[in-house]
Amino acid sequence: STQKPISSGFQTNEYADAQLQEIVRKMRERATVYKEKLNDPVLSSPEGSPEASPSKKKPPPPPKEEKKEEKKEELEIKPEEDHYCDMLCCKFKKPPLKKYKEYLQLPESIDSYTDRRYVAWLMLVTVAYNWNCWFIPLRFVFPYQTPSNIKYWVAIDVICDICYLCDLLIFQPRVQFLKGGDIISDKVEMKKFYHSSVKFRLDVISVLPFDVLYFFFGFNPALRANRMLKHNTFFEFNDRLEAILDKAYIYRVIRTTGYLLFILHVNACLYYWASDYEGLGSTRWVYDGEGNMYLRCYYWAVRTLITIGGLPEPQTLFEIIFQLLNFFLGVFVFSSLIGQMRDVIGAATAGQNYYRSCMDNTVSYMNTYSIPRLVQNRVRTWYEYTWDSQGMLDESELLEQMPVKMQLAIAIDVNFAIVNKVDLFKGCDTQMIYDMLLRLKSIVYLPGDFVCKKGEIGREMYIIKQGEVQVLGGPDGTKVLVTLKAGAVFGEISLLAAGGGNRRTANVVAHGFANLFILDKKTLNEILVHYPDSEKLLKKKAKVLLKAKGKPAPGPPVQQPRGLAGLFGQKPETPKMFKALLGGKGKEGLARLLQLKRQQDTQVTPQKIDIGKHLHFCFQETPAEAQNKPEQEEKKPVEAAASSAPPEQKSEQNVDTKPKPSTIQRETSKESLIISMSPSPTAGEGEILKVEVKEKKQK
């Protein structure tokens, strides 16, 4: 037998076929995206943004000579960048000298409020100013400046004068100033402004070289008294330093103490001058010249200004006038300094006093209304932790004093990194997120506090700023499902839940102290009024997240029966239609059926219900029902009960060709319930459930 040749059919190119299939797949995906676009206009177009039109042709490359020059410059720069220093056995890299010069190079204009280098320079000038203020009176009155050590005093005086000159000629003409709300940084304008100020005049007077008079009057420190007129720089340094210190009140206390010590220092110098004028040891009131002259005079000045008393009485008129002036000056100066010290300490502890006042008022309120001790302890714990963690009870009170722009800048630095992690807000308008940052509220939860409970309507979103929270679940609600740490977000679905609310599905408890940011639904809706595009995007994302989280969790795996029971499979569940028909369990359901049957008809009428499974049941009275029957019926024989069935019923049972329901009857039964299954005469309708209730006739 000859075999027929197999026809090869139409031959195709495999590469072309693959390309065509890829094109078809892409076209189908494109069509699907456009359908979704028509159904939901929030989605963006699948087409990519058009590329920019090509610009003009690039200019021709530079000549070879220019390239050579650039290469030479690069070679010159590289050795400076890769500058290493050999020291002993190690070799380390250090920045080149040019970087140091750039850092030390003075800018054309100086911002006196933010430039730390300017503050450092003011500190150097302040040290020079304090040297002059403390040692010029000391050298003028006490005999500490001698010909043997005059060169050291003069050397330090020259260094201080150089600092004064540099500040006058270099730094102060570069300081910016405000004019009509504008910051002026022009060189000419800054010089004119400084030269027209009172500060410039005092600075010029403070550097006048009266020291040249040393050659005529000797080395008298009183000729340098004009150096103490540079007090404006000293007070400016105090203001700038307090602005950058974290705890400025500490410096204020030190400065006030320095004022007191300086006044005592001046008073000690005056007392030695008066004693020298009267003659050392000439009277009981003056200094007797024994011991350390400065310490003895300083001790006298302290007792006089603080009005301790116990000093020798003045003898001469000069001593009496000097002592009276000293007492008046001491009362005025000392009381002023004590008042200033009180203000400084009061300002430093104002927050602590406010915290104590709030806590005392709260404790008094709880005691008045007999609040339980457990609740009072938790309130005290909340006050203490909130104050210790953030230094204030409410952060919003501090921010309310600032302009909105500054509030936004602080909120961005503190909270933007946390809010930006929320998937719900990704892709939203940045300005909308900025507005939302200003509405976040910070709340502290104590250990064991419920952040939200299962079944509550969720109206807030929570962002963990600090601490941890635990999500509880399980049958008893105590099983820890997950632990959320700082930066985690939960409850965001509740903000945009459809239908007006979304119930919490688990309990969330604070594990330890937890500081949370809260954003409620009402606040978010007020913000979204001004951002309709972001509102549409959030609603779409909320639907997607609700669908993802709304899927039922997979249940526990079904255990397979062991042994021979596994051959028969699991027992089918009772049909719901049959459960609804019975309406109850045991004798209650049977009693309802019998009562319904008596009301409808005394004849037997089968009830038909279409179901897809075969069922065969028989309900009888329980032994408890049989005991409540009359004793006469209990004495009847079983045969009589069996033969009491009418012949019609027997004939009906014989006619049925389908499986007969098994009925177990007792002699006490008056009714019989028969349930059977029979195929439906109409094809495709399944089977028919028959329920028959028959009464037994007495002989």
Features:
alpha+beta; Jelly Rolls; 25 helices; 50% helix; ion channel
Can you put this structure into words, describing what you see?
The structure is a single chain. The chain is built from 25 helices and 13 strands. It is α+β, with helices and mostly antiparallel strands. α4 (116-141) packs across α9, α10 (248-278) crosses α11 (293-305) and α13 (350-368) runs antiparallel to α14. 14% of the residues are buried. Mean pLDDT is 74; it is low at 1-9, 42-58, 60-68, 70-81, 551-558 and 603-669.
Distance N terminus to C terminus? 89 Å
Ranges where pLDDT stays below 50 over 5 or more residues in a row are: 1-9, 42-58, 60-68, 70-81, 551-558, 603-669
How much helicity do the residues have?
40-55%
Largest sheet: 6 strands, antiparallel
Q: Nearest-angstrom radius of gyration?
A: 50 Å
Q: What gross morphology would you assign? A: elongated
In terms of structural class, how would the helical and strand content be classed? alpha+beta
User: What is the beta-strand fraction?
Assistant: 5-15%
What is the strand tally?
13
Summed over residues and divided by their number, the pLDDT gives a mean of: 74
Number of helices: 25
Write the layout of secondary structure elements.
Layout lengths: L13 H26 L24 H18 L2 E4 L2 E4 L3 H8 L11 H26 L8 H22 L5 E3 L2 E3 L2 H9 L2 H9 L7 H4 L13 H14 L3 H31 L14 H13 L11 H32 L1 H19 L4 H18 L4 H5 L4 H16 L10 H8 L3 E5 L4 E3 L7 E14 L5 E6 L4 E2 L16 E14 H8 L3 H19 L25 H7 L4 H14 L6 E5 L11 H5 L3 H4 L3 H6 L3 H9 L15 E9 L7 E9 L4
Antiparallel strand pairs: 1-2, 3-4, 5-10, 6-10, 7-8, 7-9, 7-10, 11-13, 12-13
Protein name: CNGB3 protein
Membrane topology: Multi-pass membrane protein
Keywords: cGMP, cGMP-binding, Ion channel, Ion transport, Ligand-gated ion channel, Membrane, Nucleotide-binding, Sensory transduction, Transmembrane, Transmembrane helix, Transport, Vision
